[in-house]
Design brief:
homodimer; alpha/beta; 7-stranded parallel β-sheet
């Protein structure tokens, strides 16, 4: 019997979840839900319906886990608690500062509905958080470092596109190699924002726009660019479309610490990922945690959980016996 | 109130656990137990007793978690089930092929005694296993690769020392850089044993020994060296003592996989560690899981568990709330 998956929101992440469900042979896609007119949304999976979001409330019992693929700014704070009352849910809420509040909201509604809600699933928050936690538990005397990239930052790309005279643009966050090497050496460096990442911008200027002004506006933009070494490359729309249309990303979580009676021994733990598609990878993590949500719910558990609260074996199709003999 | 830790076996690992307990301020060392005459064993922690192993049975109620620091060949298969009947226990049983049987033995006795037993804790099995599992769950369509080193292999060093004419020796397992790079590129290579690791031996020959014969005996030793490219360096006892007395180790777990409707996107997940002291790092992982054993037992759980069965939050001192706001 397959785990019946519903997807709410069919952007890059929703499509990624659809692809992930295809790769997991214990799951099947039941329906995609959208705020758009459902007949305008074409999905990849044959013979699976697309419904308007208003249909969701009639689907209790037909979906084992609803995956929420909206944005963290306005969609998820409202949708995740709301639908946690009706379904087991998984989201990728990634506004780190608001996680505690989101957790409480989802917890209350999931408990009220007798469901499991898993929030903030993906790679950061998600796999990176797990690696910070495991490494911190193992090496209590040490420091954590997180680097992001090389990859496309959607927020920074949007910021570029709001600059006067800009027609289009993409921003890559790039870790500074010297900083990475210093951290890997275990030397435990203190690093400023500027020392850890550079920001590389590819910009298409409108005809007759003042490029020097654009470059200056970008480089001096507070919060987004002013605290970083930023490079701006002007290119044509054709080149942007051809070379910068992907959504790659990645990053590094490193902890260095010391052990021994006099802290005489050094250790470095590193986790890193290199992704061709940020949303598809996030979707794969979500699919694994959807399996966990289903199983926890089958066991009678209720309430909100994060990746910290879920034993790894729940993510896998295999039995405990199979996992012990094949992967331990 | 601290978690009261007992250590059985005071070799490199036992000493490492003692150091790890010192770094975790919610733990205290209650006693060290040894098969040796207890008065011949000097430990680092002031005012903590060393007892003969025969005293262990009288210590129920005085120890929250007993950490078993013996060897996997003969000590742990007997000790872990035996003491799981009396205490919550953690071991680092690392004979991969025998884990299922060991699990069953410990499970039966831990359940009989109402205790929690966590087996095969360390880095492989342990953290490497966890990373194989997480990455496999995330990228179902992909391949796992594990590389060990650069580090000292105790078993291979022992094998060298058994060769005729050898006075002393140390063996390093070294991952082949080209193989690592090929795996990291996501090209999903098929690699033979010889292509993944080389074996580097530092050997002290006895006076007048036949060095050519020693080198040939080592390189052709079945199982240990014959399937690898092996290099043998003859050095003096002084040089061996001076430059090769440490116990460094490390390694890499890498999974590459594909996502997308037509598997068009490539992803690489890597976990790697670089350790000055293999036993001290193993001990640190064990200490974190001792905390988990204590907490699970407090919740009324019983039986044998592995790293796969334990939610990450159990490893940390912090509350769920603290973890969510600081690490997620």
């Amino acid at each position: 019997m397959s785990i019946k998956i519903g997807i709410l929101g069919y952007g890059n992440l929703g499509k990624g979840v659809e692809c992930a469900v295809k790769q997991n042979n214990d799951m099947e896609l039941t329906a995609v839900f959208t705020r758009r007119a459902s007949e305008t949304v074409n999905i990849l999976t044959p013979n699976v319906p697309v419904y308007n979001i208003s249909q969701l409330e009639n689907m209790q019992g037909e979906i084992d886990v609803l995956i929420l693929c909206g944005g963290s700014a306005t969609d998820l704070p409202e949708q995740t608690p709301k639908y946690a009352r009706l379904f087991n849910v998984v989201d990728s809420f990634d506004t780190h500062a608001n996680i505690p509040k989101h957790f409480d909201n989802v917890d209350k509604m999931a408990k009220a509905g007798g469901n499991v809600g898993i929030i903030s699933v993906g790679w950061d928050p998600g796999m990176f958080s797990l690696n910070r936690l495991y490494a911190s538990a193992i090496l209590p005397q040490g420091s954590n470092y997180t680097f992001w990239g090389k990859g496309v930052s959607q927020g920074h790309s949007d910021a570029i596109r709001r600059v006067e005279g800009v027609q289009d643009g993409k921003q890559y966050t790039v870790p500074v190699n010297e900083a990475l090497q210093a951290v890997r050496s275990g030397s435990n460096p203190q690093l400023t924002t500027r020392q850890k990442h550079i920001r590389e911008c590819f910009v298409v200027a409108k005809e007759n726009a003042d490029k020097a002004q654009i470059e200056s506006d970008i480089k001096n933009m507070p919060n987004y660019f002013a605290d970083y070494n930023t490079t701006v490359h002007f290119i044509s729309q054709e080149e942007l479309n051809e070379k910068h249309s992907g959504i790659p990303h990645g990053g590094f979580v490193i902890r260095s610490g010391k052990t021994g009676w006099n802290a005489e021994n050094k250790h470095v733990i590193e986790y890193n990922i290199k992704l061709d598609s940020n949303p598809e990878f996030t979707a794969c993590v979500i699919a694994a945690y959807a399996r966990a949500a289903y199983r926890l719910s089958q066991e009678g558990q209720k309430g909100c959980k994060t990746v910290f609260d879920i034993a790894p074996a729940y993510l896998c199709q295999q039995t405990g016996e199979q996992l012990r003999s094949s992967m331990l």
